[in-house]
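Usage example:
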Amino acid sequence: MKFQASKGTYDVMPDQVHLWQHIESVIREQSRIYGFKEIRTPVFEDTALFVKGTGDTTDIVQKEMYTFTDKGQRSITLRPEGTPPVLRALIEHNTLKEQPCAKVFYLAPMFRYERPQAGRMRQHTQFGAEVLGSHSPLADVEAISLLFFTLQKLGLGGLSLRLNSLGCAQCRPPYRQKLTDHFKPMLPELCDNCQDRYNRNPLRILDCKIDQAKFKDVPEMKDFLCGDCKTHFQAVQDRLKDIEIPFTLDKNLVRGLDYYTRTAFEVISQHLGAQDALGGGGRYDGLMEDLGGSPAPGVGFGSGLERYVLALKNQGVNLPPEKRPDVYIATLGDEAVKKGSLLCSQLRQKGLACEQELLGRSLKAQMREAGRLNARYVALIGEDEIRKGLVTLKDMDQHQQAEVAFDELVVNVPKYCQCE
RNA sequence: GUGGAUGUAGUUCAGCUGGUUAGAACGUCGGAUUGUGGAUCCGAAGGCCGGGGGUUCGAAUCCCCUCAUCCACCCCA
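Running the assembly step on the lines above writes:
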């Protein structure tokens, strides 16, 4: 039996970790600048939270959830998306009663049972953010701009933002009716999938790539938007223009989740394959109430870090260099090994990143190792050094070395090692 | 869930229509330099050729099954 990572999961090995840490630190810093506080919720929740929040007509709930029964006979689900748990937590902790508006972000693993492919994993990591309590178009722009500028800050290029308005509880039902009326006569001509969508959520038919050609004279949401929705949508667009976020209107952008109202958006990258959305989101003015909280509007997004990584690699972005070890301690002989291990410990106490030989290899091999690790200095201790009570300190960049008294080196490290 | 492609040293890959001890590059280890890295040269280690079954005198190579990975559909981040 040879074990391997489960289907759709992967390991981030040590040589890749700095890329992830870089992305995560940019995300945290951007979130701070935009005034979003981090929130951490459990990896699993009561299954009903997603059935109710995400929506039982969605693919996520219908076929993609990791659901199991625990020993207490509770139905538990590994979270497939971040928004319902976040709202649950805000409701549970009465956050909006203490403050009228809350802005939170999360950076956490999500789980969906899907067939893996480029940019789609069963366990993936999402950066998401939510603005709760505000109807203002500015709230929409807060979410969109955090997403967009964070991607930009990371050096992701070839971005485009697509925008649409799905209307509200007042104006969407009539539109939905109009849409079903429109599709009814042509239903037999539509693909199997769309026939299914017709019953589940007719708006999603607009997303279909196969039948696009038949959609020429389909009624459009924009002609049905109520006055408030129209004003809101226009204001979102105006504010985006003010802050110079380019976007295109996409009347077919529907989003797969049931809870969206008004604004829906998506950021896609040219540098990705079929799964080209770096992030997407929208407004969900009814969701707080659906989940048992006091009515409150909200808007947010989710975005996939695996796709950031893919896109960054595909476009060949270079990253800030990894931190190098300050000192590599090379030793020859038993006494030297003991002395070296003491030096290593003392230098570490002083805050230097130190490595020592653990395999007892030849000096040549130790030097090669130091080179491979890109150590700034090598502290060499052999029999000569032991006899004289000193250390040969080699500057690996300058190819120079000098002898320094052991005690002097430990006491006065900065004088000898110019370390960042 | 559907379709296509691919599984050979640690890694990336050769291996033609089946024919002896399965190769290269990079990496690793050692040596040239008995105590000094990245370059160069020399050498070594390292493979149940994804797994199982079948055809054959003979299978990495052909057939079947299976598993896995990748890509795409679907859907989404």
